[in-house]
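Same chain as my last thread, 179 residues:
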Amino acid sequence: MATKIRLQRFGKKGKPFYHVVVADARAPRDGKFIERLGSYNPNTNPATINLDFDKTLDWMNKGAQPTDTARAILSYKGVLYKKHLQGGVKKGAFDEATAEARFEEWLNGKENKISSKKENLASTAAEARKVALAAEAKKKEDMAAAIAAKNTPPAEETAEEPEASAETEASDETAAGEE
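reply #2:
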């Protein structure tokens, strides 16, 4: 029986959530499966992947074939690299301790990359929040100034009115004197 490591879709439309499962290759996508290995949530940034590493490695060693997306997930978590290192130990290229050291080094580098991405995303979000807050404060000040300008009578108009009435009186007097 050919087994596949693949994704089983859950979640509502537009918000997918997947279980990583081992299933018979003939079984439908969301149908019967042999064992659940973990979950994958692509809705978060970075994507959340929970995987039982030992079970997955055991199934890979038994010959289960991952689908393309499952292969990418297993590669991201290091299952394929661990299998590759175990193959090197079996062939005698290096010993078990060297393989473990290489895997730990790779795992630490991967964790540093993920944590730096999370920090970068958090700082970008904080910066965006600051910019939005500053823009909102400026808009609020502009609106307050516009309201204040609308509600207070302009000083120029009140000063112009007496001058305008004095000019009209003067023009009336000159018009009366010409007659």
